[in-house]
Specification:
CATH architecture of the largest domain: Orthogonal Bundle
Helix content: 55-70%
Low-confidence stretches: none
Structural class: mainly alpha
CATH class of the largest domain: Mainly Alpha
Order of helices and strands: HHHH
Distance between the termini: 40 Å
CATH topology of the largest domain: Arc Repressor Mutant, subunit A
Number of domains: 2
Mean pLDDT: 81
CATH superfamily of the largest domain: Homeodomain-like
Number of strands: 0
Radius of gyration: 16 Å
Number of helices: 4
Shape: globular
Amino acid sequence: MKHYPVEFKADAVALYRSKPGATIRSVADDLGVNTETLRNWIRAADGRRPGAHFAPPTAAQAGGGDVQADLAAARKRIRELEEEHDILRKAARYFATETRW
């Protein structure tokens, strides 16, 4: 069983929530995690599963600092990752059509 850092779990949940209309499956595929794993992280973040092992990182865990600045940085990183993902998706689509004869 893989163990993911708390920050990765929080970012994955935030990414899912930031994409309107996205499915858990599509976000899980994008991140390379199991669909049920991401579903469990979302449930744990919502507090819907007793005894969950997930909690968003506190300021102390994240190294302190300004929460708003951390949030802005996380949103910027999500935008960057979404752009990279779009580029990779387009490239994959291009190469898929090139290999069909």
